């Protein structure tokens, strides 16, 4: 008879190599690391504490323990603590490959559950949400959560699972997990409202459900994952065949590589102007977005800044009309300004647009040159090519700038 003894232990990512076999020390290390990251006065941080537990008594699962919504800031918490925690939670539960455990105390109104509200925002169909009801042993006498656990009150596609965790008194009294699980089992078997569903309640059942979901997910995604790997393998094998007889000094390969880099530069430049690039600048406007802003915001702003004196314009119109009549008497004959007078006045007003137009041309051309410089960064490993490409394209842009100004 061969007996294999497996000692339970835990490891933290922030202190690799150290194995914790005393889980009281694990709890203390979590508290110490929390204080180190967030301070000693109820601060918060989005930096996770990574803990891995090795045991023959647990199932393979990755759990992320997220904080509950805090409505009123206390201690060192910032005024926008509620929004910060909400953003932190959404960062995780928005991922399509995670299950959401919407934990709600049984002694509160389920309709006001923050957990269920957030889960519904990212998972409106309820495909990834499992309701977990805690504190069933703390409900007022004569009340129970039977309708909730039977999925009748606020139905969820995956239903609800009730659990009874250790109280703070149990934790302070060093009540171990095994004893807590036995007490939880006894609670469900003895409670008149829950005994008929005791086999579908409790922490062990929740573990099995989560493990089964993990297994189902692996089974569903494995074929697609295998196909993707096979496709990548075939692609790599094809590249290996192409480069098997590679000769670095072959001039045709150098020419081909040069053309590919120039074509890539052209594609990158076009994407930055159209806004369909693979890298999106989140710090400032650039490329096509900035040019669009120049045309639709900056140019109209410059026009609005132009001074306009209606009294002076009327005086100029009057002089223009009189001047085109010469020695003849000016006799009002209609509602319209004579053509020659109209053209003279309009030409003089259009000339005023030249300044804002030229300024907009300068701004657009400068942004085009900046875009060229950003695109040539990918050619940095070939300084001469980078320099020549930038010189040729920038020269062409400046040539077009001069022609545009001449047209203006």
From TrEMBL:
UniProt GO BP: receptor internalization; synaptic vesicle budding from presynaptic endocytic zone membrane
Keyword Oxidoreductase: no
UniProt xrefs under InterPro entries: Dynamin, Dynamin_GTPase, Dynamin_N, Dynamin_stalk, G_DYNAMIN_dom, P-loop_NTPase
Ranges where the Dynamin-type G domain occurs: 1-223
GO terms for cellular component: cytoplasm; microtubule; plasma membrane; presynapse
GO molecular function: GTP binding; GTPase activity; microtubule binding
Record's keyword annotation contains GTP-binding: yes
Record key words, sorted: GTP-binding, Nucleotide-binding
Stored Pfam families: Dynamin_M, Dynamin_N
Record-given protein name: DYN3 protein
SMART domains: DYNc (SM00053)
């Amino acid at each position: 008879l061969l007996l294999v003894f497996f000692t339970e232990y835990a490891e933290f990512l922030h202190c690799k190599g150290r194995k914790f076999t005393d889980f009281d020390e694990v709890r203390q290390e979590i508290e110490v690391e929390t204080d180190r990251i967030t301070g000693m006065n109820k601060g918060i941080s989005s930096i996770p504490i990574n803990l891995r537990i090795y045991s023959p008594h647990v199932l393979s699962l990755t759990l992320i323990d997220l904080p509950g919504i805090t409505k009123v800031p206390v201690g060192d918490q910032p005024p926008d603590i509620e929004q910060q925690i909400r953003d932190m939670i959404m960062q995780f539960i928005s991922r399509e490959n995670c299950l959401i455990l919407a934990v709600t105390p049984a002694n509160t109104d389920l309709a006001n559950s923050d957990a269920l509200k957030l889960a519904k925002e990212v998972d409106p169909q309820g495909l990834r949400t499992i309701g977990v009801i805690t504190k069933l042993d703390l409900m007022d006498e004569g009340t129970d959560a039977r309708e909730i656990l039977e999925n009748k009150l606020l139905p969820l596609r995956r239903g609800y699972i009730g659990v009874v965790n250790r109280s703070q008194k149990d934790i302070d009294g060093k009540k171990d997990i095994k004893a807590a699980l036995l007490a939880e089992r006894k609670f469900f078997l003895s409670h008149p409202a829950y005994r008929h569903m005791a086999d579908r309640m409790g922490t062990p059942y929740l573990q099995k459900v989560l493990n089964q979901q993990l297994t189902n997910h692996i089974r569903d995604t494995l074929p697609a994952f295998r196909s993707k790997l096979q496709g990548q393998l075939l692609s790599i094998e094809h590249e290996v065949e192409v480069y098997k007889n590679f000769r670095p000094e072959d001039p045709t390969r150098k020419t081909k590589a040069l053309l590919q880099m120039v074509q890539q530069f052209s594609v990158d430049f076009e994407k930055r102007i159209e806004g369909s690039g693979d890298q999106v600048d989140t710090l400032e406007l650039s490329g096509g977005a900035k040019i669009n802003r120049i045309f639709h915001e900056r140019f109209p702003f410059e026009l609005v800044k132009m001074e306009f004196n209606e009294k002076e314009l009327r005086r100029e119109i009057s002089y223009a009309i009189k001047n085109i009549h010469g020695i003849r008497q000016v006799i009002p004959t209609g509602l319209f300004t004579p053509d020659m007078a109209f053209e003279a006045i309009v030409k003089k007003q259009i000339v005023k647009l030249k300044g804002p137009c030229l300024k907009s041309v300068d701004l657009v051309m400068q942004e085009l040159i900046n875009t060229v410089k950003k695109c040539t960064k990918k050619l940095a490993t070939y300084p001469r090519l980078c320099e020549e490409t930038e010189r040729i394209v920038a020269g062409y842009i400046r040539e077009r700038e001069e022609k545009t100004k001449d047209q203006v």
